[in-house]
Amino acid sequence: MRKIVDWTQDYLHLVKGAALMYWHSKPPKHYLGYVLEDRCPIIIIPGILLRWGFMKPLADFISMQGHPTYVLPNLGHNLSAISESAKKVQELIKENSLRDVVIVGHSKGGLIGKYLLSNLNSTNVRGMIAIATPFSGSALSKLIPHKSYKELHEESELIKELTIHRDINKKIISIIPEYDNHVWSEKGSFLENALDNIEVVVKGHHKVVNDNEVKKLVLVSIKRFFVD
């Protein structure tokens, strides 16, 4: 019964986020208009089936701290191959001559970020904060008959390849909800050799993205890449 409640509450957050992503097609002007000199650039990457607007509350919060905040409308619903999406992130970095970038990725967005770090030699990325990311894959993806989900299951070549690149994990902080209804894996979102794995008292794969305490944790985590 408890899990049914958790799933229901999580999908209410999904519906709310979906409404935001269709309502907001363009990022607010303050994402790049309100910038403090000592703040690093942030790139927001959503999960599969989600547009950047799903993460707008978190992106807004980060932006209002003075971070130049970049989103990728050209990812659409994030159904492209992870390698292709990572190249789009790389292009954004090059086109804007960004340095000391911190990526904030949710779910598949964290896999895109890790692919960028491990396969595209992106030296301009300082680190990544991954939220509810299936680093070991998710058995749930096997139940969804869409080719975009094949990369996400535990036995996919993509997951196996990313797992090999353990050296890059020290540039990643993984934020893990105490219960994740979408990441079906024994390890959940735990990442071996990560800079940190932080479990938060939030139940839900989508709910965790815009939890108020998680928002504050993201800001603290951004600073860690410039101290540790």
Automatic annotation (TrEMBL):
<dbReference type="GO" id="GO:0016788">
    <property type="term" value="F:hydrolase activity, acting on ester bonds"/>
</dbReference>
<dbReference type="InterPro" id="IPR029058">
    <property type="entry name" value="AB_hydrolase_fold"/>
</dbReference>
<protein>
    <recommendedName>
        <fullName>GPI inositol-deacylase PGAP1-like alpha/beta domain-containing protein</fullName>
    </recommendedName>
</protein>
<dbReference type="Pfam" id="PF07819">
    <property type="entry name" value="PGAP1"/>
</dbReference>
<feature type="domain" description="GPI inositol-deacylase PGAP1-like alpha/beta">
    <location>
        <begin position="82"/>
        <end position="154"/>
    </location>
</feature>
<dbReference type="InterPro" id="IPR012908">
    <property type="entry name" value="PGAP1-ab_dom-like"/>
</dbReference>
